[in-house]
Amino acid sequence: MRWLPDLTRTVAILLALYALSLLDRNLISLMVAPMRADLGLSETQIGLLQGYAFAVFYVVCGVPLGLLADRAPRKFVIFGGVLLWSLATVSCGLARTFPELLLARFAVGVGEAALIPAAYSLLGDIAPRSQLALAMAVFTTGAMVGSGLSIILGGVLVQLLTAFGPVELFGVSFEPWQTTFVLVGAVGIPLTLLSLLLPEPRSFADGDVRRPDSQEAAGFVSFVGSHKGFLAVHFLGYAAIYTASAGGSGWAPVYLQQTFGWSTARIGAAVGAGVVVCGLAGSLLAGHWIQRQLQQGNHAAPLSYFAVGAIVVALLGGIAPWTGSGTTFVLLYVSTSFFTVCAAAAGTALTLVTPPPFRGRVAALFTMVFNLIGAGTGPLIVGATSQHFAGDHGLSVALTVTYVGSGMAAAGLLWIGARIMPPPIAPGSFAADP
Question: In whole numbers, what is the pLDDT of the chain averaged over residues?
Fold first, then answer.
C-alpha cells in the first residue's frame, strides 16, 4: 500500500483497524446467553462486561496514550494498541470465571485506547482542511463496519461452532463462545502489521520519543482551561449519543432473542447488514454535508448536525421496542445508525479548534469521556434498568429510557456547543495546508 497517496493510505488503514477494534469490542453482545449459562452471570454483570469493563481502562490509559501520540511516531503507538487488544480478545476466550473475563475486557480497553488519539492526531497533520471532514467521516465508517461485522460474522461463527460443539485442545475444553473469541482475536494479530505502513509527517530522530517540554505542557493546560466550556458540552454531547448507541448495540440482539425467539444467525444477518448499510450511508452523508458547511464558513456544523440527529435517535430508539414486531424493531433500530456515527464530526470539530501539538491529548480526553459515559454507562443502564423492571417488558422499558434520555440530553448539549464553539485556529497551523 505504500504506492498510495499518504492521505488515502492513512484513511484506508485506520478504517480497517477501527473496524477490527469494534469487531473485537462488540462481539460479546451475541454471546450473552451461553456466557450467562456457563458462568452464571447476572444481567448487571453482562452490562459491566459490555460497558465499564472495557471503558474503565480505556479511560485510565487514554490520556497517557494521547500524550504518547503527541510525542512519538503514531504508527508505533497504534501497532502496540492493536496487538494488545487482539491478544486480549483471545484471552476472553480463555477465561473460565467472571473475574478472568473482566480482566481480559480491561485489556481490550487498554489496547483500543491507543487508536483514536493517534488517528485524530495523524489525520489532522495529513489532511488539508478542505478534505478533513470527509477524511474523518470515511475513517469512522470503520465503527459501523466493525459493529456490523461483529454481528454478522459473530452470528455465523456462533451458529457454526455451536453446531460443532465444544473443542478440546491440550486437554482443555472450549465452549463455542470461547472458541469464537479465540478465533477472532487470533485473526487480528497479523493485521497489526498494517499500522507499520502508516506515514509519519512529523520528524523524529531515529523514532525516539520527544522529551516533555514544560512550556508546551503549560500551553496545553492553558488551552484546555480557556476552552473548558466548549470542550465540556462537546465531550458530553457526543458521549450521550454514544450512550444510546452502545446500550442498543449491547442489548438489541438479546431483545430479539428473548422477545421474538430469533436465532443468532438471523440476528447477525438482519441487524449486522442494517447497521453497516445505515451506518456507512449516515457517516458519508454527514461528512459530505459538514464539509460543504465548513467551506461556507459554518464551523459549528459538526455539532448542529448531530444536535438534530440526536432527536431522531431518541424518537426511533424509543419507539422501536414497542412495535410488537421483530422486523419493525430491526428497521427502526438500524435506522438510528444514520445519526449515531458521530466520532468523525467530533474529531473534525476538535481538530479545527486545537493546535497540532495538543491534538493527541485533546482527542484522548474526548475518547476518555466518550467511552466512560457512552461505552461504560450505555450497556449498564440498559442491563440494570431491565433487571429493576423485571418482567415481560423490562428490557423494552430499559431500551426506551436509554434512547430517549440520552438522545434528548445530547441534543441540548450539542446545541449549546454549536452556539459557543470558538473560531478555528489559523489555516497555517495545519501541517498539511497549502
Answer: 83
